[in-house]
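Before relying on records like the one below, remember that each one covers exactly one chain. Contacts with other chains, cofactors or solvent are not represented anywhere in the record.
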Amino acid sequence: MSLLCGIDIGTSATKVLLCRPNGKVLATASTEYPVYTPKPGWSEQEPEDWWKATVQGIAAACKKAKVKASAITGIGLSGQMHGSVFVDKSGKSLRRALLWNDQRTGAECAEIEQRAGGRDQLISMVSNVALTGFTAPKILWVRKNDPKTYGKTHRILLPKDYIRLKLTGEYASEVSDAAGTLLLDIGNRTWHLGLLERLEIDKDLMPPVYESPEVSGKVSAAAAKLTGLTPGTPVVGGAGDQPAGAVGNGIVTSGIVSATMGTSGVVFAHSDNPVPNADGNLQSFCHAVPGKWCVFGCMLSAGGSLQWLRNTLFDKEIEKLRRTKKDLGQLYPAMIEEAAQAPAGCEGLIFLPYLTGERCPYPDPQARGAWIGLTVRHKRSHMIRAVLEGITFGMRDQIEIMRSRGVAITQVRASGGGAASRFWRQMQADMYKANVVTINTREGGALGVALLAAVGTGEYATVPEACKAAIRVTETLKPKQASARVYDDLYPTYQALYRSLRDHFVSLGSAC
């Protein structure tokens, strides 16, 4: 039987997954590496660390599964989006890669807008605004601040595409990840030559782009010797981490979206057509499904708000767990159980979850968190529930923007921390006014690109067919009308509070 491998180049670790075409996972292995912050706001990694982690991860996963690497029949690649890898003619990385969360490129973002002819013109070209996390401003920064490296650069690659180069010797990318560079014509699924010209970036620096399930290269003899893989094993285009995770959650047909709560909170939707993004507060990209598109938003402090609450109000419980050397994550179920003692709407208490600024729906680094509406009646249970509700309101903001752009939403697939609690999943169903479901897997991006490899090697004809075979719904929660009405009444106030406080947040920031 075919053996598929999904490799996910994350920010903290590389994950290698082995599975069968039906989605049955045989083993996973993760290898960590450091992030370097040479200056405040900078974030870098050594591309060679990703490759070492990939080699180690393949060996570890095969050992766990009790299979040989030579049995792998297809490989898919996923990875952190937007990172920039500058390589010379020999394929050697010339410097540390600038990562998605690197914030040094504010001036370059302004320059890109100016060169494009303004913000609206930029959106018309590439469907997105210039954000510091994207790849294009990093290219301009390196050209300006490290001209020696830029002069030696033969290709500019994304993180997973560097691993493709190491595995196959091929320079290649694919449309879902390339869309996050800010240099791709999203509608035509090709590099935007007009914008490249305006930015004075040589088009030959950018690799060819493929559709995600297309075979983009084959394992070289040199890589086979290092990894134990069979020379000639196909490697498909793969996907950026968000589209790959969407495939791993089965978000490959219209009407189904995912709501993923990690530190940040991402709502991801499939679309049969490019999604208009005139306000620029969403990311509108190509999907990993050939000929399809996607749209997603990101709030910065979803699970991060709950983690902050735990660290701030549960110091005694934390100390007890530390004394007994237990995982602090054990506190979350107890916190949510306490939150359930308070009523929906928390008797007029609202939490704004902008603890680290915000991206969607408000691209505002000055935004701040707040409890508003506190009275002597409110207890800790109200405060916890208000945080959960504030996070979920923030996710609803993204959903409502998508609905306003014509994206159909009939089912929401919960994943991450927001999927672990049935109470929180029901809150999401009530607030989103949509069925919230869980599925039979939580492997995300690594499984998603393994399924793309299954398509590319002929196991399935299409990506939706592969997802249908591997992914099934395990539970469905429908909205409860009473709670939904409470949240509908409260939601306009939640939105108005940010608008009322926005200027005051700026003042508070300048007072620090």
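The CA atoms of residues 227 and 262 lie 32 Å apart.
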